[in-house]
Amino acid sequence: MEQLIHYVWKHKLFPLTGLKTTDGQEVEVIDPGLHNHNAGPDFFNAKVKIGGTMWVGNVEIHDRASDWFLHRHDRDPNYNNVILHVAESIDVDVKTRQGNYPPQMRLQVPAAIREHYEELLTTDEYPACYRIIPDLSRLMVHSWMSALQTERLEHKTEAITQRVKDCGGSWEAAYFVTLARNYGFGINGDAFETWAKLIPLQDIAHHRDNLLQIEAFFLGQAGLLETASIPERYQQKAQKDSYFTQLESEYKYLAHKFGLQHMDASQWRFLRLRPQNFPHIRIAQLARLYYEQRAGLSQLLDCGTVKQVRELLKTQVTTYWETHYVFGEESAKSEKRLSSSSLNLQIINTVIPILFAYGKHKNSEKYCDRAFSFLEALKAEDNHIVRMWKEVGLQVGTAGDSQALIQLKKAYCDRKDCLRCRIGYEYLKGNPSAQL
Fold this sequence. Notes:
Elements: H1 2-10, E1 27-31, E2 34-35, E3 43-50, E4 53-64, H2 67-70, E5 82-89, E6 104-106, H3 111-122, H4 138-166, H5 171-183, H6 189-196, H7 201-204, H8 211-221, H9 232-239, H10 242-258, H11 279-291, H12 297-301, H13 306-313, E7 324-326, E8 329-330, H14 340-362, H15 365-377, H16 384-391, H17 399-413, H18 422-428
Parallel strand pairs: 4-5, 5-6
Antiparallel strand pairs: 1-3, 2-3, 3-4, 7-8
Helix pairs in contact: 4-5, 4-14, 4-17, 5-6, 5-14, 8-10, 8-11, 13-14, 14-15
């Protein structure tokens, strides 16, 4: 429970009077210090009055005092300036490498906090803190949701920054990869990212005015022009399908010209996937978007409103795919446009993170502010995570809210990391409605 003792010390969730060192000196905690998550003492620059004398320095915390020796702090010069050693159990005197004996103080986790913490870790209901949600102040919730929004965008920025590195420093290519990944809508996200990284944009740009060649390039690199990728019951029909044979012929030419290597088609998932989400359809939509020169970063950066982004990204399939979902099997005619809800998800998961990441890269507040304004302009997502939070009393109105709550569940609730959560803090400190 050392982590819990750290938490109690950091937030001063203990009686502030009657504190004494093991040798009877009175202790007054003025400032618990800055929590250190790296090597060295647990808290830096603490201010503690011991026996009437003010000390400024580092504080180390353990479950048992003997952990000092277990962790070899007696051999580490970084612990020479510890002004106070705090432990729940004092079972030994501690000593620094210099030979000094830091004062020690016993600090017990208050029973109510320990009880509430165990409830958070063991309760079957989800989220575990659901009892206090309705009684949280609007100011506290708004502050925490704003922080979570930013945290989620920072997390996505890390992924985008890595893609930029993977793409040789090209933000244009990284945007295309991010856009493509989110065309997988979760299920085929990894496959789409693998595919997009195999699309050499500088090469395909030479054929930008030929939609057939773009589609051949895209579908060929996806491995979907290989006969083995077509279900057996459709293979004979596909072999006689003039459009399939055209694409196949064009891709062979392009593959030879540019030395292309396509991905393994087995990476694509079809099981329990709606036909409109088949990779053939999504790739055809991307091919149309690219052909019409609406898949570039510069065009995106010119959009100042959500409406303009919608106009930029709305797309549909090419003519052949209006009557097909796979090669060799006709279907009822449909334009198969990217739906309004799918467009929203693209804006939330592609456009907004790219704007934020690019703004951070360029030190441009304009793009970062635009990212946040887009989040507030879009309606909240409707998924099981958002519905769960609504059911326990949280108000969810915008995409900013839903993104914050997705971050809350994935980064805190799923990891039982209640000690870093502000709602967990309210629960632990003894909000009246947290009492059972």
